[in-house]
Amino acid sequence: MNIENTQSQMRKGILEFCILSVIRRGEAYPSDIVEEMKAANLNILEGTLYPLLTRLKNAEMLTYRWVESNSGPPRKYFSLTPKGEAFYGELQATWNELTNAVHALTQKI
Amino acid sequence: MKKIININFHSRVIPIEETAYDILQQYVESLRRYFANEEGREEIISDIENRFSELFADKLKKGAACITDDDVNAIIASMGRPEELAAEEVETSAHISPAAGAGGSAGGAGTGGTTGGPQQGYGPAPADEPRRLFRAANDKVLGGVCAGLANYLKLDPAIVRLLFVLITIFWGFGFLLYIILWIVLPTKALPTNARKRLYRNPDDRVIAGVASGIAAYFHIEVWIPRLVFALPLIIGVVTSIFQNIWWHFFRWGGGHILFDGFGGSLVVAYIVLWIVLPEANTATEKLEMRGEKIDLESIKNTVKSDMESFKGRAREMGAEMKESFQNMGQQMGTQIRQNVQNFSAEKTYTRRGGTGIGHAIGVLFKAFFLLIAGLIAFALIMGLIAIAFSGGGLLDLKSYVLDGFWENILTWASFILVLVIPVIALLTWLIRRITGMRSQRHYLGYVFATLWIIGLISFVVLAGMIINNFRARAHTEEDFALVQPSHGNLIIRARQNVHRDYYDDEDWWFGNGWRNGLRHSGFFYSLNDDSVQLNTVQIKVLRSDDSSYHLRVLRGSLGSSANSALDRARQIIFPVSQSDSIIQLPGGFSINREQKFRNQQVIVVVYIPVGKKIMIENSVNRYDWFNLNVGRRHINWEDGRNDYSNDYDDEGFSLQNNYNWNSDVQYIMTADGLQRVNSLGKLGDRPERPEKSERPEKKEKVEAPENPTQPDKGGYRYKTPQAPAKKNNADTPVPKSSTMLPTPHPYRFVLLSSFIYLITDTLVG
Q1: How many other CB atoms are found less than 10 A from the CB of residue B332?
Q2: Nearest CA to B709 among B650, B750, B746, B657?
Q3: How many domains does chain A have?
Q4: To probe the interface with A, which of B9, B39, B43, B349 has the most A CB atoms within 10 Å?
Q5: What is d(CA B32, CA B54) in angstroms, rounded to the nearest whole number?
């Protein structure tokens, strides 16, 4: 049993939830999401973010539009679709249940 | 000192060290391979590259002169290498599917959601859950049955798929079984079991590393597949060396078929695998190529020891490489294939819902259409293969048709490109579909299409050249010095052919029918290595102007110009001999490869004086007749029932006014024309004896109305003095055509002719 492994497991399970939360607050560009996660001290490999975004987009949870940028090429700004909202809602409910459960369990000791 | 290059990277100009650029490229390439099965691969890669470019720009803005190795490595470290990503991916996928399952089945996500949690959650089925057969929702070609079975049996899906395809091809029930399983089994997102994949091994190769890749896959020594691929070729070479000695053995013994056919398909297989299989370049792929352990549970017990010993040997061979990756491989190899194949929360959900009658009907519908599509595809493949092979048969004749270097080149080009390319393309597609490999080379389709179009063009050019070779017509006339027969009766007989018959005796291609066709009634009654024998000979009967018999031999040929046609006509050797009343004609005439086939023909014209008799023996029935008329725009294909004389008219010679006759019937020339000798006495007894009885199946052709050009020529028909005879006449074959009875065309010739016809048709449009 490897402590790092377990830790990363914990983080990974909530990755999508986190991504969706960031985007839900307003249109976001992948680098924004990365920065925001880093700022929140959630350490992930950036490489996992891009495939996830693409998959979420292909599953119609997300949509994006190109926005011109004054430094460099246009950027992809992602936003949630109604379907993504619903999905997020479910994840949020699960998350709440989980935190409550974990909280209850950890507090007991 | 390092070389710095400027690259345009996602709309930004980046000065970068060449080595750093190499690192970057390698990294992107490894990602490309890693996401090979991912739907939005290009998009993901592009996003990641974009990020790189952005970070590079940041770096430069902060004052860096250029991007260094360290910079790239730092970004790669934060981005994650494929191995690291793989570790993450597995968990995310395990996370997604149970979440969806939980969402669909029960509101309480607690239990379902956590099964993805444990570290070994990627295992085919959690230990506490009984193993069940599912269809794989995430890895499917049709309905995911094979992947599901593979998961259940812990086999590589590609193997199960290949088995299914083989069973379907050879026994047919594979597809039915598949449909039943498709209907019956529930669907579920399953991890794939493919830990091994076929690659080409670039480290140990003779041509392209196909054989050594196969060896690595099956953990056998590399010389085994090499030998399998090479053996037919070696044997082919050896046989061609000893062909003269062992001619009969290999021809008769079936070795011919086995080694030519099998060896040929192995060569094609090698080429297809070469195209289909990727090279194992990265460490990951090399591990995948070998598989980190042999895990085919179903055969484990029986062949375990064998496999172990094989594996031992394989290990020795590749010890170096293996050891260095062994540790990493144990963990990574199991996970590396577990790419999340689709984000299928929704799909899984809806598919679960549809397990009723509706589902079954849906599946049946789908299966029906697939079956139809499959049959069409199968027929196409088979047709192409058949054409390719019979085209091979045609190749025997090609040296008689083709003249010169360019025509040969074009023939090969169009043959290979037009016929073989589609077969290879279809096979490539099929294997890719079966093994679930995605192309990394999108240009392949364009290459195939381009080659095919080049083939078509060369075909058209070739057609033009060939047509040109048949454009002009010429003939020679020669009188045979006939000694007048003593009894006023002339008998014409065609000699039996005594000919070296190697070829058609062993012609396994077209079987007996073809062989018989060759022997008895074909245009080519014999074909061997140096020459082809034609029997396009016609006998015409005319009334002599004086009181003696005359015999004239016309030899005709086509050619690109009147001169070359005349040359060819002169080269026809058709010696006629006479012994008193019997005129012996050769069974045909042969043309060799230099002379070429240009529809050479011989017409024997017999002039009968009034009051003298003639009988043409049955043996002339082996002559056959056809015309190729290259007009200004097209070739007319005639089968000999049309009036030949038209063709020679324009050269000032007329064969009109010739008489129709039946073989084995004695005629007498009268002032009114040719009459049967026995018709004067007991007419109607056996009016059309030989043909009617021998070839009843030709009746309707023979009964066709007489040639329209003939009646108004007047006076050539024998008279039918009595009324009953008229009735007979209705189903009496037009006598003339009986000579060159429409016998079944030899297969190969029909192909040749339709080939020529096709060309002209294409050209003319």
Answers
A1: 20
A2: B657
A3: 1
A4: B43
A5: 20
Q: Are strands B601-608 and B537-543 parallel, antiparallel or unpaired?
A: parallel
Q: What pTM does this model have? A: 0.40
Residue A82: pLDDT band (50, 70, 90) is very high
What residues contact B576, with CB distance under 8 A and at least 6 apart?
B480, B551, B553, B583, B584, B585, B586, B604
> B443-469 and B405-414 are packed helices; what angle lies between their axes, rounded to 10 degrees?
140
Assess whether B512 and B659 both reside in one domain. yes
Task: Please give the ipTM for the structure prediction.
Answer: 0.88
Q: Tell me the two tokens of residue B456.
A: 């078509």
DSSP letter (8 states) at residue B625: -
- DSSP 8-state code for residue B462: H
- Among B9, B92, B338, B340, which would you mutate to test the A interface (most chain A Cβ atoms within 10 Å of its Cβ)? B92
B45-93 pLDDT, tens per residue?
888 888 888 889 888 888 888 888 888 988 888 888 887 777 665 444 4
> Closest residue of A to B113, CA-based?
A94
Residue of B nearest to A56 (CA): B343
Which positions ≥6 away from B87 have C-beta within 8 Å? A8, B335
Final residue in a domain of this structure, among B192, B209, B239: B192
Beta-carbon contacts of B148 under 8 Å, excluding residues fewer than 6 positions away, are B133, B134, B135, B136, B181, B185, B188, B190
Helix intervals (H) in B157-222: 157-170, 173-184, 210-218
pLDDT of residue B529: 57
End-to-end CA distance of chain A: 23
- Domain of residue A96, residue span: 3-108
Pick A94's closest partner by Cβ from B78, B79, B113: B113
R_g (Cα) of chain A, nearest Å = 16
Domain co-membership, B546 together with B494: yes
B216-230, B359-373, B739-753: least confident range: B739-753
- Rounded CA separation B151/A29 (Å): 39
**B-side interface with A, Cβ within 8 Å?**
10-12, 31, 35, 38-40, 43-44, 47-48, 50-51, 53-54, 57, 78-81, 84-85, 87-89, 91-92, 95-96, 99, 103, 109-110, 113, 116-117, 119, 340, 342-346
Return the DSSP state at B67.
B
DSSP string, B508-536: -SSHHHHHHIIIII-SEEEE-SSEEEE-B
| Greater pLDDT, B50 or B94 | B50
- CA Rg value for chain B: 38
Q: Which domain holds residue B143?
A: 128-192
Distance (Å, rounded) from C-alpha B520 to C-alpha B694? 14
Please indicate, yes or no, whether residues B328 and B219 belong to a single structural domain of this protein. Answer: yes
Q: Is residue B739 predicted with pLDDT exceeding 70?
A: no
In this predicted structure, what is the pLDDT of residue B336?
Answer: 43
Supply the CATH number for residue A47's domain. Answer: 1.10.10.10
Number of CB pairs, chain A paired with chain B, less than 8 A apart: 105
Residue B188's pLDDT is what? 73
Coil, strand or helix at B287: helix
Name the most confidently modeled range: B107-116, B236-245, B332-341, B615-624: B615-624
Sign of CA dihedral B560, B566, B568, B572: positive
Residue where a domain stops, chosen among B44, B65, B80: B80
| Residue B671: closest CA among B520, B545, B522 | B545
CB B500 within 8 A of CB B592: no
